[in-house]
Amino acid sequence: MNGIHDVGGMHGFGAVRKEADEPVFHTRWEGRLFALVNLCLGVGIGNIDRFRHAIERLSPASYLTESYYGRWLAALETLLEEEGVVRRSETDARERGEGPPAAMAPAPSPTSGAARRRVDTPPRFAVGQPVRARNLNPPGHTRLPRYARGKCGVIVRVHPAWVFPDTNAQGRGENPQYAYGVRFGAEELWGPEAEPGTAMHLDLFESYLEPVSDEG
Amino acid sequence: MSEYDHGPSDRHALRAEALESLLREKGLVQPEMIDAVVRQYEQDIGPMNGAQVVARAWTDPAYKQRLLHDGTEAIAELGFGGPQGEHIVVVENTSAVHNVVVCTLCSCYPWPVLGLPPSWYKSPAYRSRVVREPRAVLAEMGLALKPEVEIRVWDSSSEVRYLVLPQRPAGTEGLGEAELAACVTRDSMIGVGQPMSPSAAEHPDPDV
User: Fold this and answer.
1) Catalytic residue among B108, B156, B183, B188, which?
2) What is the pLDDT of residues A156-194, one digit of tens each?
3) Which of B29, B156, B160 is facing A36, going by the closest CB pair?
4) Buried b (16+ CB within 10 A) or exposed e, B87-123
5) What is the pTM of this model?
6) Residue A121 Cα, gap to closest chain B Cα (Å)
7) Which helix (H) or strand (E) holds B65?
8) How far does A72 lie from chain B, in Å, by closest CA?
9) Which among B42, B150, B155 is the nearest to A31, CB-wise?
10) Residue A199 has pLDDT above 90, yes or no
11) Where are the domains of chain A?
12) Cα Rg, chain A, nearest whole Å
């Protein structure tokens, strides 16, 4: 989706501010929430792609005004609701100190979370091959950032096949496919404003890419 | 502050607590597992792990070769691995090339070797700018690179998590692995800083 999370190349966010003496977690609830999310994903409640997509579906205003773990909290609620594990009304009642104790849920089936899969076909692209990132604008989850779409680069590494996040985030299957390290010149991405002597490397799934034809 | 004057963090704390208690009653998470995860990331998993990897690479050429060939495997030799470290690629800084890592879409980061990312790494300011004007961002963060040094920005857009292998500082010829590891900063392994000199490492700044 063309969401607010896809910030690569945007203007207007100002200077990068470092926090002095930053702790791993700023408050107790941040640490416990971090653990909850990882434990829920670990027992097979949704998957990491669904979780990321839940963050992306926050309204743009909320995304920018919430804290990092505020976004995680909202996304965990969405995930638990959509997976049928905890309803928002249950959480509302519990927050008010009302409602009965929750009943035991069916035993979950733990997953490793590992994304690597075997595929029987060979990779479509090879190191050194020029490619173009397709101009795709799916309404759902994708790991193809806007700033690379339609741009030409060169394959620099062939990665193993992994679960395809675009479909895995939306219950449409794992559809594993190869990914590729692709190098893009800065000028190809940013035009005459590009900083000289810089280049971008992205890891892009096979279906995000097309060969660059001789005439193209 | 009155009891009705809750800031966002108080509201989040109550909400997170409600979710935790429901998940516990449903038998999906155990409190001691929550405690263990928090303790791990507060104490055991952090940039000190990555610093050991870098120091080993600086002192053992065969290890460095293995590290650049298959980061995940070589890092596992030192006992590090786990979530967000299933596929680590190590990129080496040289006098001609400087590498810097970002995740523009979310906050992907090599947890087993660097721990959880600092706030600035997750901020829209860093994520939006370092891809378009890396040289300017690095200079603002205190790392001015010569114009002839090529900057490669790695956007962690898929399963790969990147670790930068910084250049070994001058004047460290006689040092052992532990002393060298003390020179390796978190920021140098993200690519927004350089390792410390041995004299600076005796009085480290925790924010780098």
Assistant:
1) B108
2) 999 999 999 999 999 999 999 999 999 999 999 999 999
3) B29
4) bbbbbebeeeebbbbbbbbbbbbbbbbbbbbbebbbb
5) 0.96
6) 20
7) helix B61-69
8) 10
9) B42
10) yes
11) 1-105, 116-211
12) 20
- pLDDT averaged over every residue in chain A: 95
For position B7, what pLDDT does the model report? 65
Domain A1-105 has CATH 3.30.450.20: no
Indicate if B183 belongs to the active site.
no
Nearby residues of A42 by Cβ (< 8 Å), 6 or more positions away = A110, A111, A113
Q: Grade residue A106 by pLDDT with cuts at 50, 70 and 90.
A: confident
Of B21, B106, B123, B197, which residue is the catalytic one? B106
Test A34 with B37 for CB contact under 8 angstroms.
yes
pLDDT value of residue A120: 94
Q: Active-site residue among B9, B95, B103, B197?
A: B103
Look at residue A215 in the predicted model and tell me its pLDDT: 52
Q: What is the ipTM of this complex?
A: 0.96
CATH class of A116-211: mainly beta
Which of A2, A16, A72, A85 best probes binding to B when mutated, by most B CB atoms within 10 angstroms?
A16
